[in-house]
């Protein structure tokens, strides 16, 4: 650190191997283009029209914390992943802490995938259900179980190259989804007649948590940065990704709110008229995406467990671990089938921690100069205060809503 303070870092030479600028932009957009687009209209209905300002501010905030992660990587060329940054800043405890929050985030996203499948398949086939040992299993629960059976074999695969290639269609899927929703409103007779409310203070905690979920890609950013031919271009990649994704999210939010207003459900697809072809296309896209991404999401969790010395390189144990992970996500999805509030919990708990608080703390620890009083330090402290407030209030609100709905 002393040598780096005495001699300014030299510009990095672009490496011969690695991904191009455009490919990294695509990968970054694929990271940010997730299931959050389904609940962004509901988030707007919870906060009102003025909450769109918060969407743009949160995008700006998360873009800045992404830049802080890049600066942490520039300070030490041995850093390759997010946990590596934690290790450089706080030692092994830092690595473990970051890994725990990353795996928790991935786990709950896997749960979200199952809830999403159950909701949308139940929308397509509303009269599904069966009795098992005298217990009636409803349509939504039935489809969660069927989805788990379908995706279970994919989780046993060690080489996910094909699935990764298929899941790269997430960016295109998001664009098609927005186009389908627009078509339903403009052509299929739904229209854009709902006025909505200007501001709903009671719904702001849920609204902000859902907005924040949409920008929780920081766990992947260091890996994307390290994969580039020229790492110095990553700041431009972040700018392109955040601008593009914000336009996509903002468009979907406005379209959905104008179409359905305060009647919006947790996922925009659940509001679409099922008899229209465009609605069915939107729902099919929504269903297919999680099927291709579920295995990729839980693989890092399984790999971390499998790296334990007693069970390393055991194929049978590997299959057992992955099967137990799938079973546990099914249980959680059946017990807490509330898509928007689970998403709000992810955004306010793991999302705030991984994407807002930790980048600031890691940067201040690694960069000594950043601790000197000035505009940068004031900005970072402000982000820490705002992030802590959003995390506490959002987590409390989402957990309270989940508990209330379970008791009801």
Low-confidence stretches: 1-16
Main sheet overview: 2 strands, antiparallel
Total beta-strand segments:
2
Identify the overall geometry: globular
* Fourth-level CATH superfamily: Amino acid/polyamine transporter I
Spatial strand order of the main sheet: 1-2
CATH topology (fold) name: Amino acid/polyamine transporter I
Evaluate the radius of gyration.
22 Å
The CATH class: Mainly Alpha
Protein described:
With 408 residues, the chain is mostly helical. The chain has one domain (21-407): Amino acid/polyamine transporter I (Up-down Bundle), CATH 1.20.1740. 72% of the residues lie in helices and 1% in strands. The protein is built from 15 helices and two strands. The chain has helices at 2-6, 21-32, 36-47, 51-74, 82-124, 139-155, 161-167, 170-186, 204-213, 221-226, 234-260, 277-306, 315-335, 339-366, 375-407; strands spanning 130-132, 135-137. Strand 1 and strand 2 form a beta hairpin. Helix 6 (139-155) runs antiparallel to helix 13 (315-335). It is a multi-pass membrane protein.
Task: Write the SSE topology.
Layout: H1 2-6, H2 21-32, H3 36-47, H4 51-74, H5 82-124, E1 130-132, E2 135-137, H6 139-155, H7 161-167, H8 170-186, H9 204-213, H10 221-226, H11 234-260, H12 277-306, H13 315-335, H14 339-366, H15 375-407
Antiparallel strand pairs: 1-2
Main location: membrane
Transmembrane segments: 48-69, 100-118, 138-157, 162-184, 204-225, 237-261, 281-304, 316-336, 342-364, 376-399
Domain Amino acid transporter transmembrane: 19-397
């Amino acid at each position: 650190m002393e040598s780096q303070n005495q001699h300014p870092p030299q510009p990095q030479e672009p490496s011969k191997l690695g991904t191009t600028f455009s490919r990294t932009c695509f990968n970054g957009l694929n990271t940010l283009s997730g299931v959050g687009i389904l609940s962004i209209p509901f988030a707007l209905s919870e906060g009102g029209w003025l909450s769109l300002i918060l969407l743009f501010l949160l995008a700006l905030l998360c873009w800045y914390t992404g830049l802080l992660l890049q600066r942490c990587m520039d300070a030490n060329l041995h850093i390759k992943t997010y946990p590596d940054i934690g290790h450089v800043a706080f030692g092994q405890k830092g690595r473990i802490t970051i890994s725990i929050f990353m795996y928790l985030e991935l786990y709950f996203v896997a749960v979200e995938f199952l809830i999403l499948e159950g909701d949308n398949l139940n929308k397509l086939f509303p009269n599904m259900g069966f009795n098992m040992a005298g217990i009636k299993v409803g349509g939504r629960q039935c489809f969660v179980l069927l989805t788990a059976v379908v995706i279970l074999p994919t989780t046993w695969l060690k080489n996910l190259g094909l699935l990764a290639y298929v899941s790269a269609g997430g960016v295109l899927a998001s664009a098609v989804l927005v186009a389908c929703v627009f078509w339903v409103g403009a052509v299929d007779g739904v229209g854009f007649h709902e006025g909505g409310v200007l501001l709903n203070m009671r719904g702001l905690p849920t609204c902000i948590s859902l907005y924040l979920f949409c920008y929780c890609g920081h766990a992947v950013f260091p890996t994307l940065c390290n994969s580039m031919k020229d790492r110095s271009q990553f700041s431009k990649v972040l700018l392109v990704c955040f601008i593009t994704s914000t336009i996509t999210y903002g468009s979907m939010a406005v379209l959905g709110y104008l179409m359905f207003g305060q009647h919006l459900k947790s996922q925009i697809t659940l509001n679409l008229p099922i008899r229209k072809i465009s609605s069915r296309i939107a729902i099919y896209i929504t269903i297919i995406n999680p099927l291709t991404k579920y295995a990729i999401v839980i693989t890092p969790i399984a790999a971390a467990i499998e790296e334990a010395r007693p069970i390393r390189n055991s194929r049978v144990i590997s299959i057992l671990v992955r099967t137990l992970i799938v079973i546990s996500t099914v249980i959680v999805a059946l017990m807490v089938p509330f898509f928007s509030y689970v998403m709000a919990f992810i955004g306010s708990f793991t999302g705030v921690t991984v994407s807002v608080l930790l980048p600031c703390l890691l940067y201040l620890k690694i960069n000594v100069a950043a601790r000197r009083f000035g505009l940068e330090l004031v900005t970072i402290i402000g982000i820490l205060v705002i992030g802590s407030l959003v995390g506490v209030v959002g987590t409390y609100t989402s957990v309270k809503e989940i508990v209330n709905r379970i008791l009801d």
